[in-house]
User: Fold these one by one.
Assistant:
Number 1:
Amino acid sequence: MDGEDGPNLCSFNFKWNVSYIFNLKGKEQMKKLFLLLLLAAPVSAQSVTPNFTQGSMQSTTTTTIDIDRTIATEVYGGDYKSWSGTNVTPSGSIEDSATTFSVTTAGDPFQLEIVDRVAGVVETIDITETIEQTSTTTSLSVFSQ
């Protein structure tokens, strides 16, 4: 075993001879072989009739499903500028960043609301929910002859 044996390292050479296995010779060999082949003839099966008269089988399957999910929603809006108020006067257009507001009648109550929003995400809504569902199926089979 010097590593050069290759695929023949573990090999067997089988030569089978029917006369060698059964130690048979000539006509005697043929007779015994013929009888052996007759004994190995096909076998026929007999039908089997069940002995029971009735029965039943019940099967129960339970399935559980757990789902965790998050629904993420982003609401987008466009560029928006506005102002509203009472007893105030603007010095120019609302789009101008240098516009100032002054009280119209001094001493009277006043109110001023300015909205300046850039385009983009206005609102983010995340809804997280867990859904748990369990279902059970029971099957009953009844049989009789």
Number 2:
Amino acid sequence: MNKRLTLALTSVAMVCSTAGIARTHGATPPDITREQARARAQQLFATFDVNGDGIVTRQEARTVGSRLLLQRAATGRDAAPGIGGRTRKYLENAFAGMQWVTEQQFEDTFLAHFDQMDTDHDGILTSAERSAAVSK
């Protein structure tokens, strides 16, 4: 397993997660559709693909992830709200050992995680479904 890429993708995934911030501020994360999750995956990938070459390397993920985590810590605002607290572990497992990730790989994995948490398979991830996933 490539620990550097795992660490970098952990930064990506932590930026994806809203569970901790939402609880801290007493807010409930909004329900999101699968298409909104797809759009968020694309936006997040574009944020991390600094040179626009269609792949996110571990260096890009590490650099941008660190910046976004610091921004989140300073402002209390999540730069990429969405899927929930298990995203980090899901992405770590999915991309373990990889040197880089393509946009399609990232989007497919992001949506597979959405589908896993969308337990009633209606294409809408509710707060209740996210909470259930986090408590597993």
Number 3:
Amino acid sequence: MKNLGILWLLYGILRIAGAAAIVIWSATWTRMFGALVTNTPNPLGMMSMFHAAMMFLVVLGVVAGIVALIAGFALMTGGDAARPLALLASFFGLTNGPLGIALGAFTLFAYSQRGADNFGYRPSAVTSR
């Protein structure tokens, strides 16, 4: 599970970097979106929704990044909390792009009942040889 933990650590760093990028370039994105909504009936309302969406994405990115970092450390150390944290991180990973979807889907499969038995990840799994 060390490899999966390393991948979750890298993914957590990328999520936090993405949230930081939104904060850094928010003024530019506000100007770009503001130029698009000037001819709408209620541009101030749309700008308010845009700012709310931007804040939501920043909060989601930071929370998902922190959960992914904690899950990565838990997976690398092999503690008891590794499975629930990995499942929580995988649900957050499904909300973002191809890398998050791939990592989240694999983690969900690996820690599902059938997938955990196939890969031998569950400590209670009995293998017959």
Number 4:
Amino acid sequence: MAAGMDIPPTRLIRLLQLGHAERALQAQAIWQCVSCQTCATRCPKSVDCAGVMDALRQLSAERGVTTPKQQRTVLFQKAFLRNIRRNGRLNELELIGEFKFSTFLHGRSLSFLFKDAMLAPQLMKRKKFHLVGEKAHDRAVVARIFARCTDNSLL
């Protein structure tokens, strides 16, 4: 993954060490990181590069230095977490609806709103599209996980 980044993770860490946080916040690399932990595994100083990338994405969104595509990523992440918090597991139809609606409200793009609509019949035919999602049996466990993360300012 690092080979395709505008700034490799090692250089991003170095930018931060040198106090160039604004340059790091504008790097495309922070949005390309998939948190695979390869960088952390290979790092001789055991730096949690994925954690740093997560923090940089969060700061970038908070400071408003994101592109429209990056803003959609943030909207998706928020919709995903709300969905898991509410249901204890993923309800795909609910997630798609919330994400598409929030993206529409944010950017007023009708084309994006209906972009994937024609996939539904194909998914239904293959039994990959579930109209009713299941909820986790013990959502209290999920609630405790979210509470712990919120207490530690991770969400």
